[in-house]
Amino acid sequence: MLSIRNLRSADIPSVIALQQRVYTTIPAFQEPQFESLLREFPTGQVVAELDGEIVGIALSLVILWDDYSLHHTWASVTNDGLFDTHDMGGRTLYGAEVCVDPKTRGQGVGHTLYDARRTLCKAMNLKRIIAGGRLPDYHKVATQMAPEEYAKRVIWGDLYDPVLRFQLDEGFDYCGILHGYLPNDIDSVGNASLIVWLNRDYDSERPTQAPPAGLFEEKS
After folding, report:
1. Domain assignment present for 183
2. Which pLDDT tens digit goes with each residue over 158-203?
3. Is 30 domain-assigned?
């Protein structure tokens, strides 16, 4: 059975191993980075379990979007992975990381994690979810076209990128290319797509809410 819950300190070795399985050129987070996420915003850190095994993670922060906007990098929005940029005065849930075990792809793990983020966004009365999405197949055509053209062709259906296509299917809008977003991402040639999902239930008259306790307690 597939279920979601919040990340725990005891999970850290397993989620580091998961990242190492998923990424070949991007370094996995280190234990102090996960501890920082749990200290800053524990409810924003979610794992997916399949039959008791961790098969996916989604890590998030609340940020003041105007501090970053269209030209940010992963390092700038996370303060080089310290994650102390989390600010409960913000209106934007920022997706710092999502990864899914390759052996479970196609089993709804990614959708479950994205749905958990949408649930969190609504529960906190946040305006939107924003993230920088990898373009893992861009390196195959990087000598032939700019990343902006690549993304457009994926949107039009002429090319296929597994991450951007998934995000579009999850209801996110493509807003442009973030150059140099993650320099170690060789597959994406350092680029990322800027994506956004708007919370239609957002109430501008209400403040950002602290996430309710137990929001992700063993939900299936």
Report:
1. yes
2. 999 999 999 999 999 999 999 999 999 999 999 999 999 999 999 9
3. no
Residue 21 within a domain? no
The CATH number of residue 91's host domain is: 3.40.630.30
Two tokens at 115?
């749905």
User: Mean of the pLDDT values across residues 87-110?
Assistant: 95
What range does the domain containing 120 cover? 59-198
pTM: predicted TM-score of the whole model, two decimal places: 0.95
Q: How many domains does the chain have?
A: 1
Domain annotation covers residue 29 = no
